[in-house]
Amino acid sequence: MNRYNPKNFESKWQAEWDKSGIYKAQDNSLKPKKYILEYFPYPSGAAMHVGHVRNYAIGDAMARFNRMQGFEVLHPMGWDAFGLPAENYAIKNKVSPAVAIEQNTKRFKAQLNQMGFGYDWSREINSTDPKYYKWTQWFFLLLYKRGLAYQQESLQWWCPVDKTVLANEQVEAGLCWRCGNQVEKKSLKQWFFKITDYADRLLNDLDDLNWSEAIKSMQRNWIGKSKGALIDFKIDGSSQKIQVFTTRPDTIFGATFLVVAPEHQIVNLITADSQKTAVEKYVKDTQAKSEIERQETGREKTGVFSGTYAINPLSNEKVPIWIADYVLAGYGTGAIMAVPAHDERDFEFATKFNLEIKQVISNDDSGDGFTVNEGGMVSSGEFNGLDSAQAREKIVQKLAELGLGVEKVNYKMRDWLISRQRYWGAPIPIVYCSKDGVVPLDEKDLPVLLPEIESIEPSGDGRSPLVNVESFVNTTCPKCGGSAKRETDTMDGFACSSWYFLRFADPNNDKMPFDKSKADYWLPVDEYIGGAEHAVMHLLYARFWTKVMYDEGLIDFTEPFTTLRNQGMILAPDGNKMSKSKGNTIEPDGLIESGYGADSIRVMELFIGPWNQASNWSVDGLGGSYRFLQRVWKITSQYIEAVDGDLSSSSAQRLKKIEHKTIKKVTRDLENLSFNTAVATLMEFVNDLYKIKEESPIVKKTAWDDVIVSLLKLLAPIAPYITEELWHLMGKEDSIHLQAWSVFDESLTQDDDFELVIQINGKVRQQLRALNSLSQKELIDLALNDDKVKKYINQNPVKKTIVVPGKLINFVV
RNA sequence: GGGCGAGUGGCGGAAUUGGUAUACGCGAUGGACUUAAAAUCCAUUGGCCUUUAAAGCCUUGAGGGUUCGAGUCCCUCCUCGCCCACCA
């Protein structure tokens, strides 16, 4: 047989697997199902590098392992092709996005195929296909129908580089999540999805998900639920009032001033003439500050006195009203009651501007009192002596009686802004009629096709390039039949990815987005694999849509992804993130071309370290993976070519034993996603086989049959090509990937004896072989008769003897 | 500042319920094969330690504790990574 040369057979098997359709998932299977999904990729201009590949290598190993274990596996792939990355690539390269997407998907698909990933390509979807986005538009109408899509004019995040608005989730520390440039605020009329209606459910249902705590806490943090109260402060000498939100109504007697955000509408009203110039200047200065500046931490507090006072509703004290940008206009009511004695920020502000600081909670270890969170109420009138937690309720009760306060739950999460002033997205299925106003389209009018146009560059005037396409804009009103204009904004790409996992269950349905029975069979996704970067975007949106679909009765489950797996990043050998701009990407294509083959890369991706930890790519390490596969090739071909003969029964027994031990260990490792140790175990297995072969040469059709079959099967999920090739060289029929997983016999994994470790005072001093059948007393006698042990005990009396059966003895002397 | 996670050889990393620390791989060194190289195969490879051997001692970020026994459990501290960050 030839030497191991992956070039000789990898593309052959790709074609063969494709032809025989071995990865097709059956909708009506009697087997238990397993839906394994990797995030569907953006087919951007940059090809996939070995970092991206890891994601798919993990999913593919899981899919193959589960298939061999008897599950009906759905492992599909598609393209998240709408959105800025694809569009920007198209603009930069002066091609139409549609053409760019076609080229890039082709390239990505070829890369996935050459890596040997087993997808059910009969279910391939593309979010830019009208057959797909028809249903994305259908979901828009569903949300509209359910009162969850609405239009509103307000200040929005605007990216001046990408020339579109962005959702809250898509702005990271004042920067656009896509291009990394500073965003601005711009007032525009926009479409929103009312995700805030689902805030509580999105929060509560997290508890039962098998997701990492990191991602769950990111979502909890993002939803940002806090319980508190709305409290009205009358403005002194006016009938007007200021409403504040606080989580600590118990501290109200310590509220020595109010602070309102500079953007608050009431600012003009409360500004006294004497302070007019100062306030106007402050408000203007604030506007000039970038979002980044405003969000800088450790920044010194700034603010200005309005010149007016409010009345504390319980203490009836006159408290000054200040204007400061440390209060955010968009959260709560945009105004706070400041309690400097018990809030660090208020304390800092009060100290700087010499405002009164009044302690209202104290406890025994309180010191100066300013750090006390909970304790007994002081200086709080009738509430003195109460515990702060109790006072919280009593005070809200009292305020409610006075008609000045009410309990309130607040969320940091805002509604999801989904309009984009860009060309490359699914058109929003809405028309504006001079007679009927805003009119949603009928389902029969879907899809609203995205017209092919020449200039797709956004103008930056807050309108999408589609406004210039008259044939698109001018239409008729579905209600009155009169002339109407289409909405020209397109939907956020995240709308497309909020339901794609359902489409895979029924990808070619042209009557419905999916058939309910198919969705209920395949969904929820059992294993969802991808990076952590989607924690508060895609993963929150998809959960929201799923709940809406459940409420509409389209599906019977409320969470889309039962288990979420965030794989660790593969970094460049220098430890940096791989990126095209840094020029440090390593693509699989070249490695395959130079002879390593896809299997070596796959072994390396999984062997490099725990699947959920970041690792640096190593070219030397890849050589090690290749050598391992070569040894597998060699030992298998020696077995195939061997001449029949005899094998000593002790060698046969040894083979059997290591085979079953290996099956046991690898099975457990794959169940636990411990791919790196599974590979290590297989390497040890092969090393052992070499040793045994050395002692007694391989003979055919004896103990070696099962051993080699098991070796190939155990390796198949990780290295599908070499195992398939060797499987067929052995003369086997069908694909190895459709075979049943090897099972181990527990009794065959047991040894007759074990290495007894003998410790004296906790230090290992001797190791002896001991039979499993020995009693504790016999073990102790065995140990005490050993010369070395005798030497260490040195005739001292043994105070204590600890025997761990099957493992060790510790003598305390 | 808050949350989550992690610190083990020259490097990536391994270690069921506390029970032989350093599996497996890389790198390195020596050897076999070869005219030579590559490839392959074999051996060695935590530190004190410098040629070998024996013996000993030390070693899982630092310090303490529990225990017959701690990488693993508890306390204090240090460092790094990721996420969030003036959310009242």
Overview of the molecule:
The structure is a single chain. Helix content is 36%, strand content 19%. Helix 2 (50-68) crosses helix 19. The longest helix is centred in the last third of the chain and has 23 residues, at 619-641. The model has no long low-confidence stretch (mean pLDDT 89). Strands 10, 11, 12, 13, 14, 15 and 18 form a seven-stranded mixed sheet that branches. The chain has a four-stranded parallel sheet with strand order 2-1-26-27, with helices on one face. A four-stranded antiparallel sheet has the order 6-5-9-19. It has 813 residues and is of the alpha+beta class. The two termini are 62 Å apart. The protein binds one RNA strand of 88 nucleotides through helix 7, strand 11, strand 15, helix 11 and strand 29.
Overall number of strands: 33
C-alpha end-to-end distance = 62 Å
What Rg do the Cα atoms give?
34 Å
Strand residue percentage:
15-25%
> How does the overall form come out from the CA principal axes?
globular
Task: Point out poorly predicted stretches.
Answer: none
Helical residue percent? 25-40%
* Overall pLDDT level: 89
Question: SS-based structural class?
Answer: alpha+beta
Q: What kind of sheet is the major sheet?
A: 7 strands, mixed
Helix count equals 26
